[in-house]
Amino acid sequence: MRLGKNAKTDLLKQVPLFAGCSKSELQKLAAIADEIDLRDGATLTREGRAGREFFVLIEGTVEVVQGADKIGELGGGDWFGEIALLTNAPRTATVTATSPVRVLVITDRAFRQVVEATPSIAVKILERVGQRLAHDAEAKTT
Fold this sequence. Notes:
The strands form two sheets. The protein has a four-stranded antiparallel sheet with strand order 1-8-3-6. It has a four-stranded antiparallel sheet with strand order 2-7-4-5, with no helix packed on it. It contains five helices and eight strands. 40% of the residues lie in helices and 27% in strands. Helix 1 crosses helix 2 and helix 4 crosses helix 5. It has 142 residues and is α+β, with helices and mostly antiparallel strands. It has helices spanning 5-13, 23-32, 82-86, 108-117, 119-141; strands spanning 34-38, 43-45, 53-59, 62-66, 69-74, 79-80, 94-97, 101-107. Strand 4 and strand 5 form a beta hairpin. The longest helix has 23 residues, at 119-141.
């Protein structure tokens, strides 16, 4: 069963990157989020390659590998690929489905179009990124 706009909005609201966004802003993001089904074993991102999508897992599980090391496993409600929305940096990890998965996908191009039309989203995301960078810097010094 496909998600409606409200269900997509609720999923996006759980992503810290979008935590400062209003309901209206989240609805604009939900409108550009495509729902995709992928099979077990599908590679969603490959380390070192260009990233052009952000993913929110609706259901299923994925494995996250960096180099030769498994660094995590994600499930429904988790997200990855946010760096692709904000920079042209290569992917930092390979993410592979370990079961059939359903994901919401936001492409960098669609994201930029929404941000250009609604600049307040960009300001709120920059605040969240700044908070994360400050937290990471503080954690390194303690």
